[in-house]
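Students often ask why inverse folding is considered easier than folding. One informal answer: many sequences map to the same fold, so there is more than one right answer. In these notes we will look at a single instance of the problem. The structure comes first.
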C-alpha cells in the first residue's frame, strides 16, 4: 500500500477488473487513450494475465482513505532496471464528477514518490495527446516537464494530433520535494 492523505494506492487485483473495464470503456476516458476500442471484460482479463506474466509493469488502484473505496487507477510500465526508468500510464479518475478536484495529481504524486524512493528509479516519462489538457496539466503540476512534441503522431476522428513526451528525473523530483517541504 502506498499511503497518501486522501487516497492510497494498492495493487490491482483480478476482482477489480469489472470496475476497471467500466471506467476504461466510458467514452470520454477511452478517447483520452491511444487505444480507443471498447474492451470486453474477457479482454480485460487477458490483459491482466499478460500483465502478470510480463512482470515489467506495476498497476495500482487508488482507494479513498480510510474507507478503501476504489476511485481510480494508475500504472508504471516498462520498468527498466538497467536504465532506472519507467513509463507512467493508465491514469484514470473513474468517476467524471470527481475530475478537477486534485485526485489525479495526488495519484501521480504518490506514484512518483514510490518510483523514486522504493524502486530507486531515476526517470519517469509519460505521453499525452495534445487535446488532453487535464492529463498534461496534472503531470506538469507534479513536476514533469514537456521534453518534446511528436508532431502529428496520433490519428483520431479524421485528424492528426501532436503527442507530448513528458519527463521527470530524480533530481527534478528531489528539488521539488525540498521546495514543497521548505
Ligand atoms: C487526467 C485525469 C487523471 C486528471 O485527474 P484530475 O483529478 O481531474 O486532475 P486534478 O484535479 O489533479 O487537476 C490537475 C490539473 O489539471 C487541471 N485540469 C483538470 N481538468 C482539466 C481540464 N479538463 N482541462 C484543463 N485543465 C484541467 C486542473 O486545473 C489542475 O491544474 P491546476 O492545479 O493548475 O489548476 C482525469 O481528468 C481523468 O481521469 N481523465 C480521463 C483519463 C485520462 O485522460 N487519463 C490520462 C491519459 S494520458
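Output (designed amino acids):
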Amino acid at each position: 500500500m502506498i499511503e497518501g492523505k486522501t487516497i492510497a494506492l494498492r495493487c490491482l487485483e483480478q476482482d477489480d477488473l469489472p470496475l476497471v473495464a467500466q471506467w476504461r470503456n466510458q467514452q470520454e476516458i477511452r478517447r483520452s487513450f491511444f487505444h480507443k476500442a471498447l474492451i470486453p471484460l474477457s479482454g480485460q482479463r487477458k490483459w491482466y494475465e499478460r500483465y502478470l506474466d510480463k512482470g515489467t509493469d506495476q498497476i495500482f488502484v487508488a482507494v479513498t482513505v480510510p474507507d478503501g473505496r476504489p476511485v481510480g487507477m494508475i500504472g508504471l510500465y516498462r520498468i527498466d532496471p538497467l536504465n532506472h526508468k519507467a513509463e507512467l500510464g493508465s491514469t484514470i479518475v473513474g468517476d467524471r464528477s470527481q475530475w478537477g478536484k486534485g485526485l489525479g495529481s495526488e495519484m501521480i504524486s504518490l506514484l512518483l514518490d514510490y518510483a523514486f524512493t522504493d524502486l530507486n528509479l531515476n526517470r519517469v516519462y509519460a505521453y499525452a495527446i495534445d487535446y488532453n489538457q487535464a492529463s498534461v496539466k496534472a503531470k506538469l503540476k507534479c513536476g514533469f516537464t514537456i521534453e518534446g512534441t511528436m508532431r502529428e503522431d496520433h490519428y483520431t476522428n479524421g485528424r492528426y494530433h501532436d503527442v507530448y513526451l513528458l519527463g521527470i528525473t530524480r533530481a527534478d523530483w528531489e528539488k521539488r520535494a525540498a521546495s514543497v517541504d521548505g
